[in-house]
Design goal:
The protein has 604 residues and is an alpha+beta fold. It has 16 helices and 20 strands. α1 packs parallel to α10. The longest helix is centred in the middle third of the chain and has 38 residues, at 325-362. Residues 1-5 and 43-70 have low confidence and may be disordered.
C-alpha cells in the first residue's frame, strides 16, 4: 500500500481477530459442505444400478439357456471417418477467421498474404462492423494488404512473420487500422491471433475495444472489482485493482484478511459489518474503507454474496471498489465552507440585531420637531444590503436654546459597526456642542478636531446647518459632502459652494477652517440633503452623479410641487430614492427633505 501499516493497539487487534475468525469459520463451513457433497457419491449409485441391470440381463440369458460371452472391441481396427476440410474447420470456429497463404520476400519476411477462405463468422462481422458494400469482393488470389492498405502498418505483418518462423501462435495483440469506404473512414480495433495451419496461416480476431473500454472506464472513475473465494482464499481481481487500492505492481493481491490489515482502525467495524452481512446474512452491503498511509485513500466497497446454489451457503464474496478520496475531500471542503458560512451568517445576524437597535437610536423619525419652526421634514434611509443593515450615514434635527433648529446630515467612513460607532460619536458630539450656541463654522471645526483625535481611520463627511425661523434663513457648512439642492418653482439647482470651496472631510487635517453659506427660504421651497451612496456609481464622475440627482429631483415632481402635508412630501422623497436606487449601489444611502411651510405660532 502507500505506507507500512502501523502496529495495531489492543482494540484494533481484537477487530482484526474478529474478521479473521469470521473468515475462518466460513472456510470451515465450505469445506464441510464439499466433503459431505463428495460423500454422497451420486456416480456410485448409478454404477450399481447399471451393474444390477447387467446382472439381470445375464440371469435372463441363463434362463434362456444361451450364455453370451463377453466380447472386447478391437479399437485399432475400427475405421475412422474422413478428416474435415479446412473450410469445415473454419466454420466450426465461433470467432471470425481468415485463412491466408503467406508470400515471403528474399529475407524470409512476410511480403503479402493471399486470401484463401473465411468462415461465416467473418462474414457476419463484416456485415455488422462495416457499411454495406464496404468490403470489396474477393477474387482468388487476392492480396490482403492491397485490399486493406492500412493493415500493412499495423502489428499484423510482424505477427504473420513470427507465426511462420517460429511455428507457434502469436497474440492476442490489439490491431488497429482504418478502412476507407464510400461512407467514410471506419476505425477498427480488434484482438488478433495468428496461428500456423499447415502451409497456411490462420488469422482469428475478436473485438478488442470492449476490454480496453472497460480498462479505460476503471481508470476514469477509479473503480475496480474482485472476487474473493472464501473456500481457499483465492482472489480474482480486475486489471485496475492495484491502481485503485494503491498496491505496487509487484505486490500480491491481498486476501480479505490482508485487506483488513491495510485499513485504518476506524474502518475495521464497517468492514466487519459488511463481511458479516454478505457471508452470514447473504445480502449486499456497502462500506467505506480508509487506507493506511500518507495518501489517506478512501475506498467505497460494495459487496455481494456468491452462493454455491440458490439458498445455500456463500462460496465467494464479489465486490466493486471505488476510490472516492477526491469526492470525500470535496465534501469535507464543502462542509468546512458551510460551517464557515453558518458562522458568518450567525455573526451577521448578531451584528444586524445590534445594528438595528443602533439604527433606531441614531436614525430617529423627527418630522414633528421641525414643524414648530415652520418646516416639514422627512427622511428616506436605505442601508447597504451587503452589510449589517446600517452604515455610516447619520442625520440630526434638534431644537436649540436660542430659538434656532440644528439640521445635519453626515456619512462616516466605512461600513458596519465600525462606521456606526464613528457616526454615533459625531452625532451625539454635535448635539452637545450645538448647545454652546456657537456658529455652524465653529461647530464643524470642533467636530473635525474630535475626528482627528480619534485616529487616522475616523473620517467623515457632513453638512452642518442651522435654521433661523424668524428670518427663514438656512446657514450651512460643507465638510467634503455633496452640497444641498434647492427646489424652487419646479427647478432643482445645487446650492453654491462656500467661499473658498467646500471644506475638507472631518478627521483629515486638524485646524481646518470652515466657511458657512446662507440661503433664504421662501414658503414652498424644498431643500434636499443626501449622501453620496444614493448617486455614486462605480468609476463614475462626481459631476455626473450630481447631474443625475438634479434630474431625478426635478422629474419626480411630475409637473407640480408635492402636495401639502408630511405624507405627500414623504412620497416625493420615496420617488427620488426609487429613481436613483438599484443593484449598482455599494453603500448606504440617505435623503433628508425640508420644506418651508409657514411660521408656526408655537415656534420658540
Amino acid at each position: 500500500m502507500d505506507a507500512t501499516s502501523p502496529v495495531p493497539d489492543a482494540r484494533t487487534h481484537l477487530a482484526l481477530q474478529s474478521i479473521r475468525e469470521l473468515l475462518r469459520a466460513q472456510r470451515r463451513r465450505i469445506r464441510k459442505y464439499a466433503e459431505s457433497y463428495q460423500d454422497e457419491d451420486p456416480g456410485r449409485d448409478q454404477d450399481q444400478d447399471r451393474g444390477r441391470g447387467r446382472g439381470q440381463e445375464h440371469d435372463q440369458d441363463q434362463d434362456q439357456g444361451a450364455a453370451t460371452p463377453t466380447a472386447t472391441a478391437d479399437v485399432s481396427s475400427t475405421p475412422l471417418p474422413p478428416a474435415p476440410s479446412a473450410r469445415e474447420v473454419l466454420e466450426a470456429l465461433s470467432v471470425p477467421a481468415l485463412l491466408v497463404a503467406p508470400l515471403l520476400d528474399d529475407d524470409g519476411r512476410i511480403q503479402d498474404a493471399l486470401y484463401v477462405t473465411r468462415n461465416a463468422a467473418a462474414l457476419d462481422y463484416a456485415a455488422e462492423r462495416l457499411p454495406q458494400g464496404g468490403v470489396p469482393q474477393w477474387s482468388r488470389p487476392a492480396s490482403l494488404f492491397e485490399r486493406f492498405p492500412s493493415l500493412a502498418g499495423s502489428p499484423l505483418p510482424d505477427m504473420l512473420t513470427e507465426a511462420l518462423r517460429r511455428g507457434a501462435p502469436q497474440g492476442p495483440t490489439l490491431v488497429e487500422w482504418v478502412m476507407t469506404t464510400t461512407h467514410g473512414p471506419v476505425r477498427i480495433n480488434d484482438q488478433v491471433r495468428v496461428a500456423p495451419c499447415g502451409e497456411h496461416l490462420l488469422i482469428t480476431w475478436e473485438r478488442g475495444h470492449r476490454l480496453h473500454m472497460a480498462t479505460a472506464a476503471q481508470q476514469l472513475v477509479r473503480t475496480c472489482w474482485a472476487e474473493w473465494n472464501l473456500g481457499d482464499g483465492g482472489v480474482d481481481p480486475s486489471r485496475g485493482f492495484r491502481q485503485v487500492l494503491g498496491i505496487p505492481g509487484h505486490a500480491d493481491i491481498p486476501t480479505l484478511s490482508e485487506l483488513a490489515e491495510t485499513v485504518t482502525p476506524e474502518s475495521l467495524p464497517d468492514l466487519y459489518r459488511t463481511l458479516y452481512d454478505v457471508i452470514l446474512r447473504k445480502r449486499t452491503s456497502v462500506c467505506e474503507l480508509r487506507m493506511n498511509g500518507a495518501g489517506s485513500r478512501v475506498i467505497r466497497m460494495t459487496a455481494e454474496p456468491v452462493r454455491i446454489a440458490p439458498g445455500s451457503l456463500v462460496w465467494a464474496l464479489r465486490a466493486v471498489l471505488t476510490d472516492v478520496t477526491a469526492e470525500r475531500r470535496r465534501r469535507a471542503t464543502a462542509e468546512r465552507a458551510e460551517r464557515e458560512a453558518r458562522r458568518q451568517r450567525e455573526r451577521a445576524e448578531a451584528v444586524a440585531e445590534v445594528a438595528g437597535v443602533l439604527r433606531e437610536a441614531v436614525l430617529p423619525h423627527f418630522q414633528d420637531e421641525p414643524a414648530a419652526y415652520g418646516l416639514e421634514a422627512t427622511t428616506v434611509y436605505r442601508p447597504d444590503a451587503r452589510e449589517a443593515g446600517v452604515g455610516g450615514d447619520w442625520y440630526k434635527a434638534r431644537r436649540l436654546p436660542g430659538g434656532s433648529l440644528l439640521v445635519a446630515l453626515g456619512d462616516a467612513r466605512g461600513h458596519g459597526l465600525a462606521a456606526v460607532t464613528l457616526m454615533a460619536k459625531l452625532r451625539y458630539a454635535l448635539a452637545g456642542l450645538a448647545y454652546t450656541e456657537r456658529r455652524v463654522e465653529q461647530l464643524t471645526q470642533w467636530l473635525n478636531e474630535l475626528a482627528c483625535a480619534d485616529g487616522a481611520e475616523s473620517t467623515a463627511t457632513a453638512i452642518i446647518a442651522r435654521y433661523h425661523p424668524e428670518q427663514g434663513l438656512l446657514r450651512w457648512t460643507c465638510a467634503g459632502h455633496p452640497r444641498p439642492v434647492l427646489l424652487r418653482d419646479g427647478t432643482a439647482r445645487q446650492l453654491p459652494d462656500p467661499e473658498g470651496g467646500p471644506g475638507l472631510p472631518l478627521g483629515v487635517l486638524p485646524g481646518t477652517p470652515y466657511t458657512a453659506v446662507e440661503v433664504s427660504l421662501r414658503v414652498g421651497d424644498i431643500v434636499l440633503m443626501y449622501s453620496d451612496g444614493l448617486t455614486e456609481r462605480r468609476d463614475s464622475d462626481p459631476d455626473l452623479d450630481t447631474r443625475r440627482f438634479l434630474d431625478a429631483a426635478q422629474e419626480c415632481l411630475g409637473g407640480a410641487a408635492p402636495g401639502a402635508g408630511h405624507e405627500a412630501l414623504n412620497e416625493y422623497a420615496e420617488r427620488i430614492v426609487g429613481e436613483l436606487d438599484g443593484p449598482h449601489r455599494s453603500d448606504d444611502a440617505t435623503l433628508l427633505v425640508l420644506r418651508r411651510t409657514a411660521m408656526s405660532a408655537s415656534a420658540p
